[in-house]
Each structure stands twice: as structure tokens, then as C-alpha cells.
Write a structure and sequence with these properties.
It is found in: Cell membrane. It is a peripheral membrane protein. By secondary structure, the chain is an alpha/beta fold. 32% of the residues lie in helices and 28% in strands. It is built from 9 helices and 12 strands. The strands form 3 sheets. The protein has a 6-stranded mixed sheet with strand order 6-7-8-3-9-10, sandwiched between helices. It has a 4-stranded antiparallel sheet with strand order 2-1-4-5, with helices on one face. β9 and β10 form a beta hairpin. The longest helix has 18 residues.
């Protein structure tokens, strides 16, 4: 099973050091959620782990190999990334979008194969997008568009998926739609999923492992029960909250009731 980790990783964004000597190992075959306050470096970390940002120090390792030294096409065959708020050319259909996920597996002498067709069709089926394959993306609902983008990432046929806030700008029903899909992909496809999550309760409900980031470093990590605690909420998010068991799943449920008097964690 594919592995992904960082060792003493430092990253800058717009000239500012955001991630500072961060070491992190992603549990293979599990769903990991990265949480933290705005500006703490969550999205920057994800971009660095996907090799979209060049490290200022340290390394990212994919299957034990430094990702910075790997050919771009080889990385794309083993690591799928879905950035926040992706944009496609006007008029592009779902089928055409999903086909782009097969580009890393093609070459100048082999453009489109039966295998490409099979995997693309399977990605459409898994995400429930087969009926929408010939629809332009801009005619779909927000949840349908997000499923189309996930289908494209699936078409890369990678063991690891990185997603940056996959439920942002979606209403409650579409958020659940996307999260249930990711949960199913992990359970049925053994995909390792690493996602930046804005909603702490979503992280606790759908992730097996949570990493709380503060000031560009890992503040704590572990199971939802170990991370979603009043102390972590106070120190990382500057929020006072009660934590109760979810009546359906038993996962920790955060009920905020005020701001903490503690100074919030900042990047700096």
C-alpha cells in the first residue's frame, strides 16, 4: 500500500514561511483530516505534499522516495490531487474532464486505450456521474460538479487522494453527498485519503485520523477522540466548547459556546 510522509518540511507562500519543520506520516488505507484555524498552513501543507510547492527545507516522501526527485508524470500516476475551487474551460463535459485524469498514463505513441476507457467509465460509475457524462460542467449543481472533479482524480487510478476542502461552498446536502462518497471510496476501494476539512465535526465523523495544525506545525494528531477535546479547541481554535458523543456514531461532537481568553495560534 502506498505511503506518504514529510520530514522536517518547511514551505513558504507569497514569500512568507508558513510550514515550519513539520514531520507527518499519513496512515495508509485510512481517511486523514487536516484541521486548524484560517491561515495556519493547512492548504499550503497539502500543496507541498502534492509537489505543487517547492520545499524551503525538508522533504516529502512517496513510497520512501523523495517526491521532489521524482518525474512529474510518475508522481501523477501515484498521487491524485484535487485543489480547492478547481476551474474548467467553459463547455467542458464531465466525460472530457474525467478523461484528463488519464493523461499521466498516456504517451506520444499511445494516446487513448481500452484501459483508459474502462477506468474512466468506472470512475464515472463510482461517483454516480455516468448519467451526466455528456453534460457540460457549468450546467451541474455544486455537488454534481464536485463529484465530477473527484471522478477525474479517480481516473488517475492512484492509491492516494489529496483533497483541499472538498465541501467548501456546498450546502449541507451536497456536503454529505461528497463526504459519503469519500467514505465509500476508502471502505470499498482502499484509497488513502488526505483532506483539508473546515468543519471539525465533519472531520470527527468521517476521518479515522486527525491532524491539528497551528502556527505551521503539528499541534497534535491521533484518533478523533484524542484530538477533538476541549483543550485542543481552546489552544488551536481559541474556542470554548463542550464535546459530547454523536448519538448515532459515538464520534466526538463539538458544541462551541464561546471564545477562549487564550491567545489564538498564529503563523509567524
Amino acid at each position: 500500500m502506498a505511503t506518504l510522509k514529510t520530514e522536517d518540511l518547511s514551505l513558504s507562500y507569497d514569500g512568507e514561511r508558513v510550514i515550519r519543520e513539520l514531520s507527518l506520516e499519513i496512515p495508509p488505507g485510512r481517511i486523514t483530516a487536516i484541521v486548524g484555524p484560517n491561515g495556519c498552513g493547512k492548504s499550503t501543507l497539502l500543496k507541498g505534499m502534492a509537489r505543487l510547492l517547492k520545499p524551503k527545507g525538508g522533504s516529502v516522501y512517496l513510497d520512501g522516495e523523495a517526491i521532489a526527485k521524482m518525474p512529474t508524470k510518475e508522481v501523477a500516476k501515484r498521487l491524485g490531487i484535487l485543489s480547492q475551487g478547481p476551474v474548467a474551460p467553459e463547455g467542458l463535459t464531465v466525460r472530457e474532464l474525467v478523461a484528463q485524469g488519464r493523461y499521466p498514463h498516456q504517451s506520444w505513441f499511445q494516446q487513448w486505450s481500452r484501459e483508459d476507457e474502462r477506468i474512466s467509465a468506472r470512475a464515472l460509475k463510482i461517483t454516480g456521474m455516468t448519467a451526466f457524462a455528456d453534460r457540460p460542467l457549468d450546467t451541474l449543481s455544486g455537488g454534481q460538479r464536485q463529484r465530477a472533479w473527484i471522478a477525474m482524480a479517480l481516473a488517475q487510478d492512484t492509491e492516494i487522494l489529496l483533497l483541499d476542502e472538498p465541501t467548501t461552498f456546498l450546502d449541507m446536502a451536497h456536503q454529505l453527498e461528497v463526504l459519503h462518497l469519500l467514505e465509500r471510496l476508502n471502505a470499498e476501494e482502499d484509497r488513502t485519503i488526505l483532506m483539508v476539512v473546515h468543519d471539525l465535526n465533519h472531520a470527527a465523523r468521517y476521518a479515522h485520523h486527525i491532524v491539528a495544525i497551528a502556527a505551521g506545525r503539528v499541534f497534535t494528531s491521533g484518533s478523533p477522540a484524542a484530538v477533538v477535546t476541549p483543550d485542543v479547541l481552546r489552544e488551536v481554535f481559541n474556542v470554548e466548547a463542550d464535546i459530547v458523543p454523536d448519538p448515532r456514531t459515538g464520534a466526538p461532537l463539538c458544541i462551541p459556546h464561546g471564545l477562549s481568553s487564550a491567545a489564538p495560534q498564529k503563523v509567524g
